[in-house]
Amino acid sequence: MRKIAILGIGQTKVDEHWDKSLREIGGEAAFLAMQDAGVDKVDALYVGNMLS
Q1: How is the chain split into domains, by residue range?
Q2: Burial state string for 11-49 with b = 16 or more CB within 10 A and e = fewer than 16
Q3: Is the C-alpha dihedral spanning 19, 22, 28, 29 positive or negative?
């Protein structure tokens, strides 16, 4: 089994986002996670939400 690591997390503000698409909201969270991790390239990205 391969070793894995969680390097960063990103979360959008909990609010009404009528002006943004789901893709934009997800992209913002992914960008924040990459900033948190201090990386600019990833091998894989796994996304979850409160319902997963």
Answers
A1: 1-52
A2: eeeeeeeeeeeeeeeeebbeeebbeeeeeeeeeeeeeee
A3: positive
Q: How confident is the model at residue 41 (pLDDT cuts 50, 70, 90)?
A: confident
Q: Given the structure tokens 């391969």, which residue do they identify?
A: 2
Looking at residue 12, its amino acid is T
| Confidence (pTM) | 0.72
Instruction: Report helix, strand or coil for 7.
Output: coil
Asked if residue 9 lies in contact with residue 36, where contact means CB atoms within 8 angstroms, the answer is yes
Interior angle at CA 11, CA 24 and CA 32, nearest 5: 70
